[in-house]
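Data deposition worksheet. Section B asks for the primary sequence of the deposited chain exactly as it was used as input, without tags or linkers unless they were present during the calculation. Section C holds the resulting structure in token form. Section D is free text for depositor observations; keep each observation to a single sentence. Incomplete worksheets are returned to the depositor.
Section A, Depositor: J.P.
Section B:
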Amino acid sequence: MESSSVFGVRLPLKQRYFLLLCIAAGAIITYHKFTRKYPVEIKRMSRVAGLTANTSQFTLEGKPFRILGGSIHYFRVPRAYWQDRLMKLKSCGLNTLTTYVPWNLHEPEQGVFNFEDQLDLEAFLHLASSLGLWVILRPGPYICAEWDLGGLPSWLLRDRNMKLRTTYQGFTDAVNAFFDQLIKKVVPHQFSKGGPIIAVQVENEYGSYAKDKEYMPFIKEALLSRGITELLMTSDNKEGLKLGGVKGALETINFQKLNLNDIKYLDEIQPQRPKMVMEYWSGWFDLWGNLHHVYTAEVHPLPELPPLRERRAYQPAVVQQHLSLWDILHFTDKPLKSEKPINMENLPVNNNNGQSYGYTLYETIITRGGLLNSKNNIRDRALVFVDKIFVGVLDYKTQELALPDGKVSHGRRTLGLLVENCGRVNYGQTLDEQRKGLVGDIELNKEVLRDFIIHSLDMKPGFLNRIENSGHWKSMREQQSFPTFFQAKLYVNGSPKDTFIKLPGWSKGVIFINGKNLGRYWSIGPQQTLYVPGPWLHRGDNQVLLFEEQETDGKVLFTTTPDYGMAVDV
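Section C:
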């Protein structure tokens, strides 16, 4: 057989052609000349010329490159739909995917890391690469993202002296421990190693916070020292550009509406560099009780779109059983006895990582009625009970409540405050103040209340499983005592499809389906439906669990059409 020489090794002609084809495809061939086995190993060839920003135009692999990017967050999309969503992003004519990394999901307890299933970042990066998308990774540690505490884990707030997003040692030690786990998973997916990551963002919008001039250099070095070699970027609004940059990173801008003066300003502070908009906001968040915010979108001609997912309006799920809050307290972690109130984050639960989400019940003994004053120490909203009878609500607007006197003068009665964590702010100067529950003293008739029994109701899967499988559920024929858990079954005949839950006649609470938390509902709106992804359902009976604070309609409705409430243009 005819042979030739490649890399100084004589090979048969067919093997030579195979080798050259592999090289053309970007592969490195390891040839074992001693065993003559061929090929032994094929690896992706390391690339050299990544994304550069040394002139007024980006280059990639040495050629002019225009970034057309869009954001899809893997942790917000059911994993079964990742490919569908990325294909739709490509169909919009985009070539680059941007995504954040939520620290609080990947390290829910200090030192306990999760990169599996829904949080498998590497699988998401592999998928993006297989679809021909480049990636700009935004690993934080703070991400904003309209996400609880901007993605920072709540256990950081157990430290009373914590200074988030600074070089305070308690924070930098935690960041280093997280990056030790995260960045080693990211490094192999960089462009220089054959992966899709062409740029990495240093923190996020730090110019709007800017409490420590040493912080951004610290984050930059935390990335570089762990093997990040691609182009670094920062991201700020116009005002933040003044303080949010760091040497060696390209500054990019965020805004709601295109303003050429903003682009001109970016060019002035960073001349002869590519001008990039990292965030061009196409939507806006809603507030409970307000209108639904929308943007008027121009209709651009698009290539053929992937097929839309089929939806289904299932038959109503009729509530079958209920179980009062007061009857499930023994399913919570052991209650804590404390002289003073303790905030959620400092409760000795979840392996001493505190409580991140949900409700906390504070109970204490009172001997008379009178004026209860929260002293603005309720975070964020409390249902108030006397001997398990609802008497009112305290929140940041209503800080005083009259408690009725008992039938027996000076009789001992139980005051209960069920405090809901309504979510930590994701942006602004008050991140260090986002502790939840009772964060200080409350008073009755100007006397400080003491000696509390505290129950944690964080609505985690383990707790929900315990109450679902308990034998204490009551028939709907028996009287209900709110707040109450309700059980219903959704029957799915055939292949499960996407649907939306609608709850007319219900007041306020949280809903779960097959153990998945769908979110909060509240009759004040604007949102009137909750999305149920088809992959979270299965054929046959599906378990629907609701925690309702004050009233029920007795059934759960399903529709194919989302209802976000009355809209107003931003």
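Section D:
The CA atoms of residues 29 and 42 lie 5 Å apart.
The helical segments are 13-24, 82-91, 103-106, 121-130, 169-186, 215-224, 260-269, 461-468.
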